[in-house]
Structure formats: C-alpha cells, structure tokens
C-alpha cells in the first residue's frame, strides 16, 4: 500500500497509489480516500485520478516534529571528518521545513554551501514511548524518502544545527508513504542520490551504524512519538553541494523517487511552499 497526499486542483486529499505493472500500457492511478489515514479510519470515495494529472504534496506534514540523525553511515563520517558515537546523534527539524515532490528548495541567503543528504524516512503511526527494539515494527506506519538539506558552512561554524538544517524548504519528503515493507525489508534498500542526473550517493540502508529499530527505540526513550512524526535515519557517504538552477533526486528502491529543483531566494516569489 502506498499512501499519497495530493491536489487535483482543489484542497489536499489522501489517496492510495496504484502503480501499473503492465509495462506502461495503462496509467498509474491514485484512488481518493476520505479522512486522514494517520488519524482516522478511511474509506474509498470512488474518485480516481491518473497519477500524472495530480500534484503530489509532502505525504505527511508532521504534527509535532521531524527527528533527524547525525552520522549513521561510516562512509559519511569519514567524508565529513566526524566521529561515530555509541549512541545516535539526534536533532530536530521544524515542520515548516517540509516540502513535497517538485517543490523548490530555496537556497538561503545566509549560506554559500548548501548540500543534499538523501535518506530513508520513517513515519510513525501511533503514540508511543520507550519502545523496545522488538516492538518497533508495531509503531511504524510506513516509509518515505527524505532529503536533509543542510547549509554546510553554517553547520560547521555554529554549535547548534537549528539554522543550518532547519530553514524553510530544508526537508523535502515524498513522493508517498510505502506501508507494506517489513522492518527487515526497509533495512535492506538501495539509496541513490543524483544531482542533475549525476550519481553522488549509492548505498544500502543495511550499512546503517544504528538500525531503524535501534533509532526508534532510542528516540522514544527521551521523547514521546506521535502519529505523523518523521524520523530521518541518516545519509550515506557521497554528499555534495548544490546550487540554484540544479535538480536533486533521491531514489530508494521499493519506494520511489523524490525530486526537487533548487532556486535562489530572489526567485522564490510565487513559488509553492
């Protein structure tokens, strides 16, 4: 099951994405559902759209928080000359940082070195606290793709990462939430990030230092997780810088591809946020 949040010319609605498996003979579609799948029971409305005819939005706007993880792949730690820690390094991104597929990442005026970080994102499905690793599967609604956009020059010159990683448009999410993966399957997915079509990141979630189960368990040990909270699980090595006019795409097998253009702040007037 793939849950999307989209607009077909009106207010945002949710739907179930149905990908055709006939080699393109029939279009991919999205079937509209009533209600919020993270909060209420839902029903099919009978309305259906071709996926190409709708505008995909961020599949979830976290009700309270996005929790991100610092170095969680050994290769990235080497790239950035950072140390891996026995316990995960975590930080928060505000929900105002969230944008959806094809929405522009706005290059902030205060930075001259903005980078991409393709990541597997976990969407929490129920209120939970102090979840043991063996129960983590029970609290996960599904998985989507995230890009932990970071102002590198600010990140390495300020003690706190709030400005470097929390600015508006610094958390693209999408294209939808994939709900049918088991925890074991999610822990063995290929992540590929391209900039203008050139591959920069290509790794597996199996390479995480701290597993998905351990991350959810650790984070829930100090903060209550709510339905719709998003956990960014860390990025592999190969991160790079991007500039206005470029396009970044993050693909994760069995989930999809999240693509966003990068624009300058002076070009952002009228851009959808």
Automatic annotation (TrEMBL):
Top-level taxon of the source organism: Bacteria
Name of protein: Fumarylacetoacetate hydrolase family protein
EC number annotated for this UniProt entry: 3.7.-.-
Single GO MF descriptor: hydrolase activity
Domain Fumarylacetoacetase-like C-terminal residue range list: 65-262
Keyword Oxidoreductase: no
Enzyme class per UniProt: hydrolase
Domain Rv2993c-like N-terminal: from-to ranges: 1-59
UniProt xrefs under InterPro entries: Fumarylacetoacetase-like_C, Fumarylacetoacetase_C_sf, Rv2993c-like_N
Keywords linked to the UniProt accession: Hydrolase, Metal-binding
SUPFAM superfamilies xref list: FAH (SSF56529)
Pfam name, any one: FAA_hydrolase
């Amino acid at each position: 099951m793939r849950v999307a949040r989209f607009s077909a010319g009106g207010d945002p609605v949710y739907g179930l994405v149905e990908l055709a498996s006939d080699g393109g003979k029939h279009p991919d579609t999205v079937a509209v559902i009533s209600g919020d799948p993270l909060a209420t029971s839902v029903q099919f409305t009978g309305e259906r759209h071709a996926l190409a005819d709708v505008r995909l939005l961020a599949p979830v706007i976290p009700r309270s928080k996005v929790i991100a993880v610092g170095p969680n792949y050994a290769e990235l730690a080497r790239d950035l000359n950072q140390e891996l820690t026995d316990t995960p390094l975590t930080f928060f991104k505000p929900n105002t940082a969230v944008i959806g597929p094809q929405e522009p990442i706005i290059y902030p005026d205060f930075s001259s070195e903005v980078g991409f970080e393709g990541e597997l994102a976990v969407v929490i499905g129920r209120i939970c606290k102090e979840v043991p690793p063996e129960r983590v599967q029970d609290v996960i609604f599904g998985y989507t793709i995230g890009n932990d956009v970071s102002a590198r020059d600010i990140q390495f010159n300020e003690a706190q990462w709030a400005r470097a990683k929390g600015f508006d448009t610094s958390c693209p999410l999408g294209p939808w939430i994939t709900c049918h993966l088991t925890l074991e399957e999610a822990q063995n997915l290929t992540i590929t990030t391209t900039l203008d079509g050139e591959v920069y990141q290509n790794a597996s979630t199996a390479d995480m230092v701290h597993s998905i189960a351990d991350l959810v368990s650790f984070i829930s040990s100090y903060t209550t997780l709510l339905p719709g909270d998003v956990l960014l699980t860390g990025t592999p090595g190969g991160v790079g810088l991007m500039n206005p006019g470029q396009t970044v795409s993050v693909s994760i097998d069995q989930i999809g591809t999240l693509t966003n253009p990068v624009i300058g702040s002076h070009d952002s007037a009228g851009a959808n946020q």
